[in-house]
Design a protein that fits this description.
five-stranded mixed β-barrel, OB fold (Dihydrolipoamide Acetyltransferase, E2P), 35% helix, alpha+beta, extended
Length: 342
C-alpha cells in the first residue's frame, strides 16, 4: 500500500468520525430539545386544564371567572360589574301579543334577568388560621345532626333559621353528601369575600359547590341556601299546588326542546329545563322568544351544550288554569347562580 493511499484512508476515516460526532451531537441536542418541548407543552396543558376546571366549577355557580393578576393592584379592588348591554349589542324589546300566556310588560323586561357580574381571585394561604378554622367549622356542620344546632354555623343565621325549619321540617329535605375535596379558592364577588370549596358529588353536575362567607366575628360561615339549593317549595310540592304567584326556586337549568299544552308553539316560546338539586325531579319553564329575558338566557346557556347545566335562582309560576303540572312560566332570573349576595 502506498503512502498516498494510506493518507487518503486516514483522511476518509477522519471525515467519517467527524461526521459521526456531529450527527451524534445533533441527535442528542435534537432529542433533548424535543423532550423539553414535550415536557413544557404537557405542563402548559396541565395548567390550562386546571384553569378550565376552575372556570367550569365557578360556571356551575353562574359566575364568570376573572383570574388574579400579578401586576400591582389598582386603587379599587372591587370587581367590575357589567350589564348585558355592555357585552352584547343593544336588544330591542319585543312586546308579547295580547293573547300571550306570559304576563310581560315592556317596562319590566329590562329587570327580568340579572346584570352580569365578575369576580376577583384573592390569594389563598391554605395553612392560615382562617382557612383551617373554616374547614373545621364545615366539618362540624357535617357532623351536627340537628338543624337547630347548625344555625350558629351558617351565614345570615337570623334570617336563614326560618328557611332551615321550612326545608327540614316542612319540605322534609336533607343535605347533599360531599365526596372528596376537589378544589378550594378565595374570591371577592361584588365586594363580598367568599371561601369557595368544591367537592365530588352525585349531583347532576358531578360536584357540590360550597361558599363560605365572613360572619360578624370575621370567621367564615356556611352559605346554607346555596349549599342546599333552597327553594320556597320542593319540586314535588310545586307540581302539586301549581302556584300562580311567583315562587323562588333554585335549580339546574339548560336550554331544552319540549313544547306542549299552553306552550306548544316552539316559534313563540323559548324552553328551558329545570332540574331539582338532587336531579330526581324537573319541570319546564317558558318565556317568549325575542324578549330581553329570552335573548339573555340563550346567550348565558349557550355554553352548556345538550348535557351541561348551570345553577339559577329564579321566580317561576303556573299559568291560570294550568293544563299540566310540568309547564311553568319563567317570571324572572334573580341570579345566575345559587349564591345570592347583597
Amino acid at each position: 500500500m502506498t503512502s498516498g493511499s494510506t493518507g487518503s484512508h486516514r483522511a476518509f476515516m477522519g471525515v467519517c468520525i467527524t461526521l459521526c460526532v456531529i450527527l451524534s451531537l445533533t441527535l442528542y441536542v435534537g432529542w433533548k430539545f424535543y423532550f423539553f418541548n414535550v415536557a413544557n407543552r404537557n405542563s402548559l396543558i396541565e395548567k390550562a386544564q386546571s384553569a378550565e376546571k376552575k372556570a367550569q366549577d365557578l360556571e356551575k355557580l353562574g359566575i364568570s371567572f376573572e383570574p388574579a393578576h400579578t401586576a400591582p393592584p389598582t386603587t379599587s379592588v372591587l370587581p367590575k360589574l357589567t350589564t348585558s348591554s355592555e357585552t352584547a349589542p343593544p336588544i330591542k324589546p319585543t312586546v308579547p301579543s295580547a293573547t300571550s300566556t306570559l304576563a310581560y310588560s315592556p317596562s319590566q323586561n329590562a329587570s327580568l334577568h340579572p346584570a352580569e357580574s365578575s369576580i376577583k381571585e384573592l390569594p389563598l394561604l391554605e395553612s392560615s388560621d382562617e382557612v383551617v378554622q373554616a374547614l373545621q367549622l364545615l366539618d362540624q356542620y357535617w357532623k351536627t345532626e340537628s338543624w337547630k344546632d347548625r344555625v350558629p354555623l351558617v351565614a345570615h343565621s337570623e334570617r336563614v333559621a326560618t328557611l332551615m325549619k321550612d326545608y327540614y321540617e316542612v319540605q322534609g329535605a336533607s343535605d347533599p353528601s360531599p365526596g372528596a375535596l376537589v378544589s378550594k379558592a378565595r374570591y371577592q364577588i361584588n365586594g363580598t369575600e367568599i371561601l369557595y370549596l368544591s367537592y365530588a358529588s352525585n349531583r347532576p353536575t358531578g360536584s357540590l359547590e360550597i361558599a363560605m362567607l365572613r360572619g360578624p366575628q370575621g370567621k367564615f360561615l356556611v352559605d346554607w341556601e346555596s349549599l342546599t339549593g333552597y327553594g320556597e317549595m320542593s319540586f314535588q310540592e310545586l307540581r302539586t299546588k301549581r302556584p300562580t304567584k311567583p315562587v323562588l326556586m333554585r335549580s339546574y337549568v339548560r336550554l331544552f326542546e319540549y313544547y306542549n299544552y299552553e306552550f306548544s308553539d316552539s316559534k313563540k316560546y323559548l324552553c328551558i329545563k329545570l332540574l331539582s338539586e338532587s336531579g330526581d325531579n324537573s319541570v319546564y319553564a317558558y318565556c317568549e322568544r325575542g324578549t330581553p329575558l329570552a335573548q339573555w338566557m340563550e346567550r348565558d346557556l349557550a355554553s352548556t351544550g345538550p348535557t351541561g347545566f348551570k345553577g339559577y335562582t329564579m321566580l317561576i309560576s303556573f299559568p291560570p288554569d294550568a293544563q299540566s303540572n310540568q309547564c311553568v312560566i319563567l317570571d324572572k332570573v334573580v341570579t345566575q347562580r345559587w349564591l345570592s349576595l347583597p
